[in-house]
Amino acid sequence: MSKKFLFPLLVCLLSSAVQANDQSSFIDKMVKEHGYDADSLRKVLQNAEKKQSILDAISRPAEKRLNWTAYRKIFLIPKRIEGGVKFYNENKAALDEAYQKFGVAPEIITAIIGVETLYGQRTGGYRVLDALSTLSFHYPPRSKFFTGELENFLLLCREENMDPTQPTGSYAGAMGKPQFIPSSYRHYSYDMDNDGKRDIWNNNVDVIGSVGNYFKRHGWRRDQAVTFQASGVTEKHNELLDAGLKPSLTVAQVLDAGVSIDADINRAMKTNLMTFELDNGEEHWLGLHNFYVITRYNHSHMYAMAVYQLSQEIKKALQQQS
After folding, report:
1. Mind listing the pLDDT tens digit for each residue in 258-287?
2. 292, 286 in Cβ contact below 8 A?
3. Which residues are catalytic?
4. Residue 21 falls within a domain, yes or no?
């Protein structure tokens, strides 16, 4: 056999050996730490399929390849606004209950579900087992994270009496209308109708309660502002723009540096200054604590802004309706 064909074969064999070793180590961990039967778990993992489309998708997320003009056009569209109004009207009692329990505004919860799955219309067609197995054993950059999610998924299936080969979700293993990854499902999903199940696929009461609980547990502050558009930002403010996603500056620091906002807010509040790249130019915004909480759902300022602006469009449409 020529060297031309020998090298790819050796790479393939080495990759398979590494995968087998990783799976073996994972099975050992599940047996030792959680009491799984090794043979049964091995059969489950053998049922998992490696999906190249999953590896392709995770390498090019929209948040990294689109500017704000293009990203916004995905979410600030009539279909999502009208769908949000419909979802709100059909689930008003549950949204009001979640607001009382968790302090999260109904339009924010509605917008999250609209951005994530178009109110349940697009919950993902990958088997969660395939997604998490592919990313655990074939995607080294985030193998540790997804191996942890695979562990949580198997524990979740045992706790909820689900067949691990059945649940479907996104290419990253996110599930149901709110797109919870397994660790979030286990820690934050909420049985708001008290029927003994935490159903985030079909039960909108639980879906709404789960999103509300997630935000409360991440520090959402009832009835507080989320973000304000800023003006007067120039190159001299680069140090402020580089301060990070988490609010670490005071409003006073930003305003005293010459940035302007059209609002009267507490100068002692923590904030961060953000840039949104447009096709022609830039927008700048101040993110407050609740904006940062939205980024705990997806660590992207564009994602959080899409949720916020969709929520405001839904709220405006509801006010016009009444």
Report:
1. 999 999 999 999 999 999 999 999 999 999
2. no
3. 116
4. yes
